[in-house]
Amino acid sequence: MAILHITKENFEQEVLKSDVPVLVDFWAAWCGPCKALGPILEEAESELAPGVKIAKINIDEQEDLAGQFRVMSIPTLILFKNGQPVEKSVGLVSKDKVLELGKK
């Protein structure tokens, strides 16, 4: 499964109604740490799938979603389970931290 790109149009279906937990990366194209996190998420995705989905939300394109979840700094990772945010991590993290978040 590939990393999903989330918009307000598919957020409810792909994140809130997901049968499995979804780790969402709030990011922006101009953010250096966000760019560094990209390859880490790709590596982690192969280890977490199919039990966890990884998704990305570009905060510049999806300001409403970023505001809804009070994203103040990026990158921000939020783990959703059963449609609810249950864990949050702010800043660049290691692959081990991503795997740990995904297994909560």
From TrEMBL:
Keywords: Disulfide bond, Electron transport, Redox-active center, Transport
Keyword Translocase part of the UniProt annotation: no
PANTHER family for this protein: GEO12009P1 (PTHR45663:SF11)
Cysteine-cysteine disulfides: C31-C34
Coiled coil ranges: none
Cellular component, GO annotation: cytosol
Single GO MF annotation: protein-disulfide reductase activity
Domain spans labelled Thioredoxin: 1-104
Organism for this UniProt entry: Fusobacterium ulcerans 12-1B
Name of protein: Thioredoxin
Site (Contributes to redox potential value): G32, P33
Family (UniProt): Belongs to the thioredoxin family.
InterPro entries xrefs: Thioredoxin, Thioredoxin-like_sf, Thioredoxin_CS, Thioredoxin_domain
Single biological process term from Gene Ontology: cell redox homeostasis
Pfam families on file: Thioredoxin (PF00085)
Active site positions: C31, C34
Lineage: Bacteria, Fusobacteriati, Fusobacteriota, Fusobacteriia, Fusobacteriales
Site (Deprotonates C-terminal active site Cys): D25
